[in-house]
Amino acid sequence: QTIRTVPTEPIEGQKPGTSGLRKKTPVFQQHHYLENFIQSIWTGIGGVEGKTLVLGGDGRHFNSQAAQVVLRMAAASGAKKVIVGKGALLSTPAASNLIRTRGADGGIVLSASHNPGGPEGDFGVKFNTANGGPAPESVTSKIFEATKTITEYHILESHDVGLRTEGSFTLAGMEVEVVDPVTDYAEMMAGIFDFDAIRALFKSGFRMRFDAMHAVTGPYASAILEGTLGAAPGTVINAIPLPDFGQGHPDPNPIWAKPLMDEMMGPNAPDFGAASDGDGDRNMIVGKGCYVTPSDSLAVLAANATLVPAYSDGLKGVARSMPTSRAVDRVADALDIDCYETPTGWKFFGNLLDVGRVTLCGEESAGTGSDHVREKDGLWAVLFWLNILAEKRQSVAELMAAHWREYGRNYYSRHDYEDVDSAAANELMDNLRGELPVLAGHSYGALKVRDADEFAYDDPVDGSRAEGQGLRIWFEGGDRAVLRLSGTGTSGATLRVYLEALETDPDKMDRDPQEALAPVISAVDEIAGIRKRTGRDAPDVIT
Ligand code: VG1
Ligand code: CO
């Protein structure tokens, strides 16, 4: 086996976004594209010599081939060991767990997460550090710098190695350990939740549907829900990971998980429904006739955390991304614990979790997690809900009603305008940014602007500062609108408009969110000229 040194040139645009580098699959398949980026990761982390890495992906098209390239390049650069999920599969939270429990120096997750896959879909590469979390900006910026100066990469000449069976072998002196992707993760879940209580819940006739969306969570959900917890066979649907996710869009929201939504809103709905995304870190929660917004879900988990064995001593604190609704803030207030507000993207929670300032965190984009790993964790959130329901023996709708009665309801919705012309989207943001200082005091329909700014975050642990993290407009009475451009898309720009209105009147807890938010929706359109500038009448996706 010889190590080849291959001359190459920098390729433009290899800048990691909100969550790793994401591009159209054919872009990743271009000559040297993946190799350049992997070599730049090695450079960005100060070399991979003597290091142990975890490797796996969500099974999308190009996953297997890319995994072989990573193995050959890790061996060529002197890595000591790579722990890889069987079939090159690992959900993002399972990878995070393995990095932590095996004391690895980091890991590579091959995924474009909730983006569609397939030959014309998206592919992605994420690097996680030794704490199991997404690389912070200090690391991704070094990786990006390396992509701009790269002149050669190193790769082993070898046949593809077999990843179909568990066990260890060596590849040019590097140990490769193939592990079952589910075992360690399932064990960790059993250590967090009251599996006996959940088993009893299913035994009592509680019915559930889990839509794995043909993505990586299928094997995890089948093993844990149906295998260990006794949910009825057929509870988990679309359970086999497919390279193109069955032509679907593995994003668990009411639009892309519509078949599940339809079932849950229909006459024969089971008691509880859930879905997860491509790489298994997102979750959607829906009860019989009752969709739970991710922001509310986070608040409910925080309010009921002590029902779960692992959190029975209470929470150290909570954190949410800035655009996430302030429902969890109200719970934190009541519990008298700290609530942190961070920029969008899981990497910003890492430091707070590492130093023990927070136990739970979440994002409005269907991400929820805790200090058990350093990624958001879809199935964990579903098990958390099951544990709560097993203790409370209430329906999701009853639980939500009680929650809102106690804390008030933060009506919430996100409107996405996808594949907008990039120049038009940037112009919209630039223009609004320019107007922020003069908005206060002006009225738009029934709403008056109280304040407006651009969010910047000073990390209280390492002092790093992240600027340009979203434009915020507050209205008198507490309503809020936030605008930002997505950092995970692969074509054009995606404008995200986050809308929130607090309601504390107990008689107004059952409104249609779009209706409750109508004044904010029209005010922000008037302020930012969304319809005019994007040329769209309505959002593409409403969550
Ligand atoms: C989106 C979400 C963000 C999430 C990120 C990665 O980012 O808004 O909350 O952390 O996706 O999620 P953006 O920049 O497109 O808004 V995942 O499940 O795609 O890794
Ligand atoms: Co994801």
UniProtKB/TrEMBL annotation:
Q: Which cofactor does it need?
A: Mg(2+)
Which Gene Ontology molecular-function terms are recorded?
magnesium ion binding; phosphoglucomutase activity
Please tell me whether the keyword Membrane is annotated for this protein: no
UniProt signal peptide: none
User: Catalytic activity, per the record?
Assistant: alpha-D-glucose 1-phosphate = alpha-D-glucose 6-phosphate
| All copies of domain Alpha-D-phosphohexomutase alpha/beta/alpha, residue ranges | 14-153, 184-286, 295-407
Coiled coil ranges (UniProt) are: none
Q: Where is this region: Disordered?
A: 1-21
Q: Does the keyword Glycosyltransferase apply?
A: no
InterPro entries on file: A-D-PHexomutase_a/b/a-I, A-D-PHexomutase_a/b/a-I/II/III, A-D-PHexomutase_a/b/a-II, A-D-PHexomutase_a/b/a-III, A-D-PHexomutase_C_sf, A-D-PHexomutase_CS, Alpha-D-phosphohexomutase_SF, PGM
> What are its GO biological-process terms?
carbohydrate metabolic process
User: What SUPFAM superfamilies would the database entry show?
Assistant: Phosphoglucomutase, C-terminal domain, Phosphoglucomutase, first 3 domains
Q: Supply the Pfam families for this chain.
A: PGM1_C_vert_fung, PGM_PMM_I, PGM_PMM_II, PGM_PMM_III
Q: EC number(s) of the enzyme?
A: 5.4.2.2
| PANTHER family per UniProt | PHOSPHOGLUCOMUTASE, PHOSPHOHEXOMUTASE FAMILY MEMBER
Read off the NCBIfam families from this record: PRK07564.1-1 (NF005737)
Q: What is this protein called?
A: phosphoglucomutase (alpha-D-glucose-1,6-bisphosphate-dependent)
**Which source organism does the UniProt entry give?**
Salipiger mucosus DSM 16094
What are the top taxonomic ranks of the organism? Bacteria, Pseudomonadati, Pseudomonadota, Alphaproteobacteria, Rhodobacterales
